[in-house]
Structures are given as C-alpha cells and as structure tokens.
Design a protein that fits this description.
By secondary structure, the chain is an all-beta fold. It has one domain: EutN/Ccml (OB fold (Dihydrolipoamide Acetyltransferase, E2P)), CATH 2.40.50. It is about 0% helix and about 30% strand. It is built from no helices and 5 strands. It has a 5-stranded mixed sheet, with no helix packed on it.
Length: about 80
C-alpha cells in the first residue's frame, strides 16, 4: 500500500470506506504494473504489503456487497516464502 485517497464526493455506498492507493509487486517485492485504488476492509497502513482481490471477488469482501468496487484489500501479508 503506497498512499491514501480523499474523495469528498463519492457513491453513497462508499461513504464509510477507506480508499487506498496500491501497486502490485512480484514475489520478491519489486513493483510491477499500474497503481490501483482499492477499498480497505482490514485497516491496512501505509507501507504494509497487502492482499488485493479484484472484479467480482472484490464485491464479496466484508461489507462490500452491492458496492461499486473493482479492487479490495482483504489481508495484510506478514511474509512471503518461495521455494525455487
């Protein structure tokens, strides 16, 4: 998670939702891809590595049923281990 978004005017269903700027990373932590705005469902903080779901999965996240979202933060990642 790299930043926050402040939107004084938004869909009424998003009024109590925190919006964060996120950017995908590869398994080694190198940034890749474009920035996204995601709804935070887990109270993530700036600089934390988070788990993001998108599309219809984002609307299944806690409290987002029937909300107009395409990306949601559903977890804070503690560590990543790879076997190569």
């Amino acid at each position: 998670m790299v930043g926050t978004v402040v939107a004084t005017r938004k869909d009424p269903r998003l009024v109590s939702s925190k919006l964060l700027v996120v950017r995908p990373i590869d398994p080694r932590g190198k940034a890749e891809g474009n920035y996204l705005v995601a709804v935070d469902t887990v109270q993530a903080g700036v600089g934390e590595t988070v788990l993001i779901v998108s599309g219809s999965s984002a609307r299944m996240a806690a409290g987002l049923k029937d909300c107009p979202v395409d990306a949601a933060i559903v977890g804070v990642i503690d560590s990543i281990e790879m076997n190569e």
